[in-house]
């Protein structure tokens, strides 16, 4: 870690010494964060900050320094390189934060390679609770990404249709086997893609988008390499090459969300309404079915007049259904026999007689499945307990350096142990709490020309996860000491100020205060910091 930061500082020094001064952008930020809670900072003191702030340190000081340089600027291509590092008061916790090259070709195609604090998918994480994935919560992972990041009008359709999208391939190179879990894997690969289409040339611009994320490959703690099958992973289909459950279901671990919304403008504000529907398998992906009952509904507003209130975020979210509480697949009466694969039964009459001693003819796939649902699954459809951001083949799921890459409101094993140290969870997958309901409000504006503010408040009802509520994912026996039984309410707040005087030439002072209160834990704390971004004329 110290070596990485030393390299970062050296690269920044070389940039400031060698590169053309008008093409160099340099920044330096120092912060001190403290909490009343010995085990956990207040929520908004560490979330949506690209993993810079450690959640579990009662107090910490750090220096974030970085530089970016415009390598090339022509009519056809622009190139930029950047690097940044975090120096902590505990030197062993220092790390290289960014190291990348990015650019745009022919004014249309965007790309970047490396670790960069940039998301083309999430909506204003500073003001909202954060996106379902590819957001700003965890550290940037090393990845290669290419696409059309901004809406591009289609000329031959007279610009009435606009599109955007992209594809990204990365590697999760943190320590993912430290917990000693047999279902964990180091150096797992992360594949993500998204595609959007929007109505152009209209005052009201509706759109629809689909985003997909997949974890695959990697090395088990015992040295076993997980087979890779690219195309089935890309399209979320089964793979005979990988075998096991991934032959019947899908190669790798998969998440995604639908994104419906519209942009419009009035004389007083630019408005963005959106409805996002998360899913973790093919059944949840079908939004017209009742088994997808989860959502995030939001409004983002940028006001054109006045400065006291410049931006507003309102969000309502619900992720507690997850295709229902029915188990994912039918099991034999003796669970040790494993899963009943309905499509592989050669004779349904014989199957029903041998398995359930039901002596009648005329059984078919649909009748057998209905029987199993009514008699084995308590009337629920199979394919439930989706368990967002978790996967049985990848213990760490959608985390990077122990922070969620998905919705920040989902709590990991490490967060749960910080506020519920006496609870002993099943701990078969990393997210203990991903079934939540709640609402959020964010406000941003200027008190005067020198002083701006950011206010956020989020209230949640936390129901834990199916993998913790039951003794295991395929069980109907409730865990006796389930911490989130009945749901636990929690409120997270944030109030931040930024003071910037034009006479200070790029220097600003930041301060914030947070109070978290509820049935999960109580904490209050804050941050004070200085940020320096010298103007180009300084060099």
What is the number of independent domains? 1
Mean pLDDT: 91
Low-confidence sequence ranges:
15-20
Number of strands: 22
Describe this structure as you would to a colleague.
- A hairpin with a 7-residue loop joins strand 6 (143-153) and strand 7 (161-172).
- The chain has an 18-stranded antiparallel barrel. A two-stranded antiparallel ribbon has the order 14-15. A two-stranded antiparallel sheet has the order 16-17.
- The chain is globular, with a radius of gyration of 25 Å.
- By secondary structure, it is mainly beta.
- It has a single domain (2-217, 252-328, 383-538), classed as Porin.
- It has 8 helices and 22 strands.
Secondary-structure blueprint:
Blueprint (H helix, E strand, L loop, with lengths): L1 H17 L5 E12 L23 E15 L3 E12 L6 E11 L3 E7 L27 E11 L7 E12 L15 E12 L4 E13 L13 H6 L9 H4 L4 E13 L3 E11 L2 H4 L9 E9 L7 E8 L29 H9 L8 H12 L22 E2 L2 E2 L6 E2 H7 L11 E3 L2 E11 L4 E12 L3 H4 L18 E13 L6 E12 L4 E10 L7
Antiparallel strand pairs: 1-2, 1-22, 2-3, 3-4, 4-5, 5-6, 6-7, 7-8, 8-9, 9-10, 10-11, 11-12, 12-13, 13-18, 14-15, 16-17, 18-19, 19-20, 20-21, 21-22
Notable features of this structure?
539 residues; mainly beta; Porin; 18-stranded antiparallel beta barrel; two-stranded antiparallel ribbon; 12% helix; globular
Please provide a brief summary of the model.
By secondary structure, the chain is mainly beta. The chain has helices at about 1-20, 230-235, 245-250, 280-285, 350-355, 365-375, 415-420, 465-470; strands at about 25-35, 60-75, 75-90, 95-105, 110-115, 145-155, 160-170, 190-200, 205-215, 255-265, 270-280, 295-305, 310-320, 400, 405, 410, 430-435, 435-445, 450-460, 490-500, 505-520, 525-530. The relative contact order is 0.12.
């Amino acid at each position: 870690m110290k070596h990485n930061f030393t390299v970062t500082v050296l690269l920044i020094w070389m940039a400031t010494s060698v590169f053309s001064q008008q093409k160099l952008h340099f920044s330096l930020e120092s912060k001190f964060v403290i909490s009343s809670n010995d085990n956990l900072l207040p929520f908004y003191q560490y979330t949506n900050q690209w993993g810079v702030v450690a959640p579990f340190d009662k107090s910490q000081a750090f220096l974030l320094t970085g530089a970016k340089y415009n390598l090339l600027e022509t009519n056809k291509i622009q190139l930029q390189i950047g690097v940044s590092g975090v120096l902590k008061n505990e030197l062993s916790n220092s790390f290289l934060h960014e190291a990348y090259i990015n650019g745009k070709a022919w004014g249309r195609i965007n790309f970047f390679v490396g670790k960069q604090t940039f998301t083309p998918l999430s909506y204003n994480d500073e003001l909202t609770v954060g996106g379902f994935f590819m957001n700003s919560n965890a550290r940037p992972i090393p990845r290669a990404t290419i696409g059309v990041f901004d809406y591009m009008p289609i000329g031959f359709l007279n610009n009435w249709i606009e599109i955007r999208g992209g594809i990204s391939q990365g590697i999760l190179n943190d320590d993912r086997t430290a917990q000693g879990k047999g279902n964990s894997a180091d150096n797992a690969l992360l594949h993500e893609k998204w595609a959007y289409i929007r109505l152009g040339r209209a005052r009201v611009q509706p759109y629809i988008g689909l985003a997909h994320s997949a974890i695959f490959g990697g090395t088990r703690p015992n040295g076993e390499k997980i087979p890779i099958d690219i195309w089935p992973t890309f399209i979320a289909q089964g793979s005979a090459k990988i075998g096991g459950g991934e032959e019947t279901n899908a190669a790798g671990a998969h998440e995604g969300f639908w994104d419906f919304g519209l942009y419009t403008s009035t004389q007083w504000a630019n408005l963005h309404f959106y409805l996002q529907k998360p899913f973790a398998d093919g059944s949840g992906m079908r939004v017209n079915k009742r088994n997808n009952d989860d959502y995030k509904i939001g409004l983002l507003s940028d006001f054109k007049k006045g400065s006291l209130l410049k931006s507003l975020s309102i969000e309502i979210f619900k992720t507690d259904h997850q295709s229902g509480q029915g188990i994912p697949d039918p099991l034999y009466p003796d669970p040790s026999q494993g899963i009943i694969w309905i499509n592989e039964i050669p004779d349904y009459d014989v199957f029903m007689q041998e398995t359930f001693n039901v002596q009648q003819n005329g059984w078919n796939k649909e009748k057998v499945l209905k029987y199993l649902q009514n008699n084995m699954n308590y009337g629920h459809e199979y394919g439930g307990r989706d368990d967002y951001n978790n996967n049985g083949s990848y213990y760490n799921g959608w985390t990077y350096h122990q922070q969620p890459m998905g919705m920040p409101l989902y709590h990991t094993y490490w967060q749960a142990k910080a506020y519920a140290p006496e609870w002993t969870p099943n701990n078969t997958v990393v997210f203990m709490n991903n079934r939540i309901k709640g609402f959020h409000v964010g406000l941003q504006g200027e008190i005067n020309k020198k002083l701006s503010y950011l206010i956020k408040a989020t209230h949640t009802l936390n129901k834990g996860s199916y993998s913790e509520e039951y003794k295991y994912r395929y069980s109907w026996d409730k865990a006796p000491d389930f911490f989130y039984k009945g749901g636990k309410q929690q409120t997270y707040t944030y109030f931040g100020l930024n003071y910037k005087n034009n006479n200070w030439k790029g220097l600003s002072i930041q301060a914030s205060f947070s109070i978290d209160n509820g049935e999960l834990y109580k904490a209050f704390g804050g941050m004070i910091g200085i940020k320096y971004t010298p103007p180009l004329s300084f060099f």
